[in-house]
Design goal:
By secondary structure, this protein is of the alpha+beta class. It has helices at about 10-20, 25-40, 95-110, 125, and strands at about 5, 55, 60-65, 70-75, 80-85. The protein contains four helices and five strands. A five-stranded mixed sheet has the order 1-5-4-3-2. Strand 2 (about 55) and strand 3 form a beta hairpin. The radius of gyration is 14 Å and the shape is globular.
């Protein structure tokens, strides 16, 4: 079993995002599938060309659903803190990925956590058990 946390603003952001979606039910279902897969300890398959889980930069990880991108970090193995949920379409303009990653890093760095605040590895095997 894994632990999943979300920063307090994430639920508000997601609710607004779902309401703006063409299909709010589908958007919510994607998030539910991600949550249940993660918490149940199931493996996130690396499918090419679109990996479901990817290290982005500086300990920031991205999980992909068909229309959402979840950004966050692993303070310890099998524990993920979601700092941002962004609709995929909002990341298409050049530079928006960098903005999302930097925002995630800034939110993480502002947290009062013991050092090291995150697992400093780019390997999926170092952050979640299969």
């Amino acid at each position: 079993m894994r632990l999943l946390y979300a920063m307090s603003h994430v639920s508000t952001d997601f609710a607004a995002m779902a309401d703006e979606s063409d299909d709010p039910t589908w958007t919510k279902q994607q998030l539910f599938v991600f949550f249940s897969t993660f918490i149940a300890g199931k493996r996130f398959h690396i499918d090419k060309p679109l990996p479901a889980m990817k290290h982005m930069n500086d300990g920031i990880w991205e999980f992909k659903t068909p229309t959402l991108r979840l950004f966050g970090f692993f303070p310890q193995k099998d524990s993920f803190i979601i700092t941002r949920i962004v609709p995929k379409i909002h990341l298409i303009p050049k530079g928006n990925y960098k903005i999302a990653i930097n925002s995630c890093r800034d939110l993480r760095d502002a947290l009062d956590l013991d050092a090291p605040k995150f697992i400093q590895s780019t390997s999926q095997d170092d952050v979640i058990q299969s």
